[in-house]
Amino acid sequence: MIDDDDEFDRLVAPVLAAARAEDARLPEGLSARVLADAARVREGWQAGARAAAPAPKLSVWQQLMGALGGVPALGGMMAACATGIWLGAAPPQQFDPLGYVVSTNTVLGYYTDMQDAILGGEAQ
Amino acid sequence: MRHLSGRPEPSCAADPPGVTDPTDPDEEATLLAAFANGDHAAAAALTERLTPRAFGLAYRLTGDRAEAEDIAQEAMVRLWRMAPDWEPGKAKVSTWVYRVVTNLCLDHKRRRKGRDGALEDAPEPLDEAPSVPEQMQDKARSAALQWALDQMPDRQRLAVVLRHLQDLPNPRIAEVMEISVEAVESLTARGKRTLTQLLRDRKGELGYEDD
């Protein structure tokens, strides 16, 4: 056994030492690939956590905004309102709001006369 | 690989004097927990520590550097994936990696055996060139060792590689192989004898002609 150990030390130990030196040399790029795998795995956890996160609680205002269609839709509504106010306060010259009222009253009067004729003044 | 029953009993007396565990299980577990919490530096530290070990073991069990590279990378990916579920008291990180590498190597060997059939049983002969240049001596010795390891039974080879190339103490080898420390001692002793016998006839090729 002592002879075996002695032979192992003389013959095999240097071979093992050479092998250890060779094994210590990693193939080029292996460490970088292992680290890239680590980053990919971690990104996968983060993506999974984001997908699993509960939806944030919205305020009444945020819900209303969402129902109206958000900021772009609200912008459109405000533009339409501003246009209406502007038209009411400073109407174009071709547009006669008084004539419109008169013509509306004429039409209403016509319908009242028709009603009297049909009902024989009972409506009065 | 056949597993023997019984868990290993930690025993420093099982190791020859001067043999210390080159791994630091507590620190490896701390680093793995840090990686699970998003610390990329911890991943780099674990890569630096464990990838050479995974690659070295895979290379000596398969004899194929390209295959060993794939196996080492796969073992490390599995480690990253299971980091959030790691239970520190259950196993040692490097022990777990060694086991994964061993199993991947056995799978590789089975696949290769199925593919190559009887050719697998034929030992790869060493280069019969009469003299080896001095600068190639280490490479020739490493190749000779690989040839000898390929002749050994699976369990003997694993025990020898873990003991003499990975420098693991016997209790750690027992954990990796899931056998008793006594069984490890027996395997490594037989492995030493087998290795010596196999390399004895190749003294000339190894540069020992004058011995």
**Class by helix and strand content of chain B?**
mainly alpha
CATH class of the largest domain in chain B: Mainly Alpha
How would you state the average pLDDT of chain B, rounded?
82
The most extensive interface, with participating residues per chain, is: A-B, 30 and 43 residues
Structural shape of chain B: globular
Distance between the termini of chain B: 38 Å
Q: Which descriptor suits the 3D outline of chain A?
A: rod-shaped
Radius of gyration of chain B: 18 Å
Helix content of chain B: 55-70%
Radius of gyration of chain A: 45 Å
Oligomer: heterodimer
CATH H-level superfamily title of the largest domain in chain B: RNA polymerase sigma factor, region 2, helix turn helix motif
Helix fraction of chain A? over 70%
Order of helical and strand elements of chain A: HHHHH
Major β-sheet profile of chain A: none
What count of domains describes the coordinates of chain A?
2
Structural features, described:
The complex is a heterodimer of chains A (124) and B (211). Chain A has helices at 2-23, 30-52, 60-68, 70-89, 97-119. Chain A is an all-alpha fold and 124 residues long. Chain A folds into two domains: 2-52, no CATH class; 60-119, no CATH class. The radius of gyration of chain A is 45 Å and the shape is rod-shaped. Chain B has eight helices and no strands. Chain B has helices spanning 25-36, 40-62, 65-82, 93-116, 137-151, 154-165, 170-177, 181-200. With 211 residues, chain B is an all-alpha fold. Chain B is 63% helix and 0% strand. Mean pLDDT of chain B is 82; it is low at 1-14 and 118-132. The longest helix of chain B has 24 residues, at 93-116. Chain B has two domains: 22-122, Rna Polymerase Sigma Factor, Chain: A, CATH 1.10.1740; 126-211, Arc Repressor Mutant, subunit A (Orthogonal Bundle), CATH 1.10.10.10. The interface between A and B is large, with 30 and 43 residues.
